[in-house]
Amino acid sequence: MKRKRLENWLCLASLPAAAAYFAHIIVGSRLYPGYSNLSMAVSDLTAADSPVFGIASRFTSLYGALACLSLTILVLVLRGQGPAAFRRGIGLYALMNWISFAGYTLFPLSGAGYRGAFQDIVHLYVVTASVVLLSILSLSMIFAGGFRTRGLRAVSYAALTALAFMTAGPIGIGLGPESLFGFFERFSAFSAVLFTALLGVFGFLYAPDRTP
User: Fold this and answer.
1) pLDDT score at 113
2) What is the extent of the structural domain holding 64?
3) Average pLDDT value for residue range 19-43
4) In this predicted model, what pLDDT tens digit does every residue of 96-128 receive, in sequence order?
5) CB–CB of 99/155 below 8 Å?
C-alpha cells in the first residue's frame, strides 16, 4: 500500500465528526430537563430556546465543519478516478452536507417541534427539503455508479443501506405512534452520520492506490 498523503489523513476528519454528533445527543439529552430520545427530535436540542442550545450547538458545529472538510477532501481525492456517476454522487453528498451545516446553523428551529416562525419555515421547507432530495439523489448515484466496480462495492452497498434507513425513518414517523417520533427520526439522522464516517475511512484506505 502506498504511503498516505495529507489529503488521505484529512478524510478521517469524519470520525471525530461522528463522535461530536453523538456527543451532542448524549450530553444534550442528559442536561435537557424532560427530554426524551424516543419521542423528541434531535433538532430540538439545538432549537433557539433549548436549555442546552449553547453546548449542543457547539458539538453540532464541530460535526458540520469536520464532516464538510472530510467530504470536500474526498471529492478532491477521487478527482478523475472511478465511475463518473460515483464521483458525482460523492460530490452531491458533500454539497448536501454543506447545505445542512450552513442551513441548520443559520436557521435553527425557534423552539421544540414546529412553531411556524420564519426560521422554522426555512429550516423545514428549504433546508430539510434540500437535504432530503440531495441525500436521495446522491446515495442513489453512489450505489448505481459503484456497485459494479471492484473496490467500490462496499461503499455503494453502504449507500444503499443508508438510503433504506433514511426511507424507513419517515415511514416509521408516519405509521408509528407520536411517542416514537424521535426513535424513527434517528433512522435518517444516524444513517447519514455513520455513512459520512464510512466515506472518510474509504478516502483514507482506498485513495492511495488510485484504483476505482
Assistant:
1) 64
2) 6-209
3) 94
4) 999 999 998 888 887 776 677 888 889 888 998
5) no
Q: Phi and psi of 115, rounded to 5°?
A: -110, -5
Which residue in the block uniquely carries the three cell numbers 459494479? 148
Does 20 map to a domain? Answer: yes
The three three-digit cell numbers of residue 102, written as one number: 450552513
Q: How much of the chain, in percent, has pLDDT values that exceed 90?
A: 69
Q: How far is CA 164 from the centre of its chain?
A: 14
DSSP string, 97-147: HHHHHHHHHHS--SSSS----HHHHIIIIIIIHHHHHHHHHHHHHHHHHHT
Residue 1 lies in a domain: no
Largest separation between any pair of C-alpha atoms in the chain = 54
Owner of C-alpha cell 492506490 = 209
Estimate the crossing angle of helix 53-77 against helix 181-206, to 10 degrees.
40
209: confidence class by pLDDT, cuts 50, 70, 90: very low
Residue 209 is given by DSSP the state G
What is the chain's alpha carbon radius of gyration, rounded to the nearest angstrom?
Answer: 17
Count of domains in the chain?
Answer: 1
Is the model's pLDDT at 208 over the cut of 80? no
Q: What's the one-letter identity of residue 143?
A: F
| Angle (nearest 5°) at CA 185 between 193 and 72 | 25
pLDDT in tens, 58-75: 999 999 999 999 999 999
Q: Do 67 and 97 form a contact (C-beta atoms < 8 A)? A: yes
Q: What values do phi and psi take at 39, rounded to 5?
A: -110, -20
